[in-house]
Amino acid sequence: MIVTTTFAETRRLGSGVVGLVPTMGYLHEGHLSHIAKSSQANDTTVVSLFVNPLQFDDPADLDRYPRNVERDRDLAFSAGADVLFAPEVSEMYPEEPLTTVVVRNVTDHMEGARRPGHFEGVATVVAKLFAGLQPDVAYFGRKDAQQVAVVTTMARDLSFAVRIEPGSTVREADGLALSSRNVFLSESERRRALSLSQGLFASADLIDRGVTKGATIERACLDHLVHVDVDYVQLADQGQARPLESLDRPAFLAVAATVGSTRLIDNIAIDAGDSGWVVDRGDRLSKASMLYGGSDAAGR
Amino acid sequence: MIVTTTFAETRRLGSGVVGLVPTMGYLHEGHLSHIAKSSQANDTTVVSLFVNPLQFDDPADLDRYPRNVERDRDLAFSAGADVLFAPEVSEMYPEEPLTTVVVRNVTDHMEGARRPGHFEGVATVVAKLFAGLQPDVAYFGRKDAQQVAVVTTMARDLSFAVRIEPGSTVREADGLALSSRNVFLSESERRRALSLSQGLFASADLIDRGVTKGATIERACLDHLVHVDVDYVQLADQGQARPLESLDRPAFLAVAATVGSTRLIDNIAIDAGDSGWVVDRGDRLSKASMLYGGSDAAGR
User: Tell me: the pLDDT tens digits for A215-265?
Assistant: First the structure.
């Protein structure tokens, strides 16, 4: 259980097969499920913690993004992390960075279209973590389905010797997808935010019954989104995050909506099973998330 | 002495400290000096050989670029290479690549301005070699001074665990900088091509005498370029390849010109010495380059 601040030291500590869990901190059960999985499967588990300014298109969002390194350190280590890499901005960007990693096509729609520069920031910082830490496996949450597609494409195109391991979305007991941004929701906003997952599950029921038409699947979700400001509901393919007219390959149904001042995203993954499409609705917590537990949540 | 075609196998063969010499093949004494240096300094020397379509802005230039794998293999191994990584296009690009590594500022002038997409192709394929082969040191020729700046910036920004080692330009006995493209020159073109290095050496003489004004230094070179089609003569800083009004930091004086149908570049590096500026005019061969020796040149 070591906290590091430089790439070189972190790389040296990575013996055997190294799993990396990249995070922006303020960990929740979603992150911890990745850490636990990595800890079981690999010799060394490195958790990185860096709130990456490059991927915030909205400075206000960057400013208020929740941060608590001590809390994250305790949580990461109790979940099985061996090393917490928490670099200062001066280690990540000793000089003004001039290099950007750009992924085409996969970033054309949904979050890529709504958040200019966001995925360039993501692809660049993840390439940097892969280059500087040389992990063998890296864990990313399926809640950010388009991000999984972007990172997978980037790692393949640049021949990084890393396997991308997507993890199921972790949800609260009532279905709300975990997000560090959930801490901004008031009680009434939180109730309204529930409609995102409820809409997705309604669509999932249709898919379970054999519906494959994109518009029908999207409509079922949209019908639930009455008290939030809907940005999009989109069926897209997992590989390149392109809109799908009908469910004819591994896909995800994504939703984005703003509730109060907080923009939320969620999705269900739709994978090929032995006898048709199988919806990954994520995993449910049986009790309230540690996100709402204050600093003593580490002990839960 | 092993020829490999995949990143994974090449990576596995790299024991200890690994030096990488990236090339597009058709090796000459410039490449061989890198290989010899790496072989002396490192445990494993990997030479990569891939004519990278991404960095050719002119399809005709790509088509006629000289290729001879057997010749290159023999030359690389006799110079001290341990592994020759010669991937097929299908290993480099199993699917249509969607990812590009873009370096700003450093690519604004000279070759970056004249060859659209060239440095994106260079930065992307070099990032791929660094990501897939994980070398500790990588060797690049100073003849491509702006390329050295681009690759150094990219490696720094993406935190690659690699040191960039620039090598002095190797020149023929009469001063012509070695380039695989020299094989295209007719005898009369070759004579005219000599004016590039002669112009640079005239500027070097001025610098040796204490001249620091950019325009004066450039003028001295330009005055020699009477029988070639001059593209630019530019004093620029080594770090970011930006035009310099006067010599006030490590720099290079670059020239580009077309002779017949062949576009040539050359430069002298100007480094900070203990008592003023020191010009790196490159190293001279004492006899004709192996470039003109046909396939038996490997034995020289």
Answer: 999 999 999 999 999 999 999 999 999 999 999 999 999 999 999 999 999
Contacts of A241 in chain B (CB under 8 A): none
Inform me whether the C-beta atom of residue A104 falls under 8 Å from chain B C-beta atoms. Answer: yes
To the nearest 10°, the Cα dihedral for A77, A80, A83, A86?
-50
Q: From chain A, pick out residues whose CB is under 8 angstroms from the CB of B153.
A: 98-99
Is the ipTM beyond the 0.90 threshold? yes
What's the CA gap between B262 and B183, in Å, rounded? 10
Q: For residue range B244-260, what is the model confidence (pLDDT) as tens digits?
A: 999 999 999 999 999 99
Cβ(B196)–Cβ(B225) below 8 Å: yes
What is the dihedral sign for C-alpha A178, A183, A188, A192?
A: negative
Question: What's the pTM value of the predicted model, to 2 decimals?
Answer: 0.94
Contact between B102 and A104 using a beta-carbon 8 Å cutoff: no
Q: Tell me B246's DSSP state.
A: B
**Which of B129, B132, B161 lies nearest to residue A132, judging by beta carbons?**
B161
Which among B7, B105, B160 has the least Cβ separation from residue A131? B160
Domain ranges of chain B: 2-167, 180-294
Tell me the CATH number of domain A2-170, given options 3.40.50.10680, 3.40.30.10, 3.30.360.10, 3.40.50.620: 3.40.50.620
Q: pLDDT tens string for chain B (300 positions)? A: 899 999 999 999 999 999 999 999 999 999 999 999 999 999 999 999 999 888 888 888 888 888 889 999 999 999 999 999 999 999 999 999 999 999 999 999 999 999 999 999 999 999 999 999 999 999 999 999 999 999 999 999 999 999 999 999 999 999 999 998 899 999 999 999 999 999 999 999 999 999 999 999 999 999 999 999 999 999 999 999 999 999 999 999 999 999 999 999 999 999 999 989 999 999 999 999 988 874 444 333
Q: B242 contacts in A (CB within 8 Å)?
A: none
Partner B contacted by A6 (CB < 8 A): no
The correct CATH number of B180-294 out of 3.40.50.720, 3.40.50.2300, 3.30.1300.10, 3.30.70.20 is 3.30.1300.10
3-state secondary structure B30-82: HHHHHHHHHHHHCCEEEEEECCCHHHCCCHHHHHHCCCCHHHHHHHHHHHCCC
B102/chain A closest Cα distance in angstroms: 5
Does A159 touch chain B if contact means CB atoms closer than 8 Å? yes
Among A94, A101, A134, select the one facing B99 at the smallest CB separation.
Answer: A101
Closest to A65 measured CA to CA, from A57, A73, A76: A57
Tell whether B128 lies on the interface with A, counting CB pairs under 8 A.
Answer: yes
CATH code of the domain made up of B2-167? 3.40.50.620
Cβ–Cβ below 8 Å for B102 and A105? no
* CATH architecture, domain A180-280: 2-Layer Sandwich (3.30)
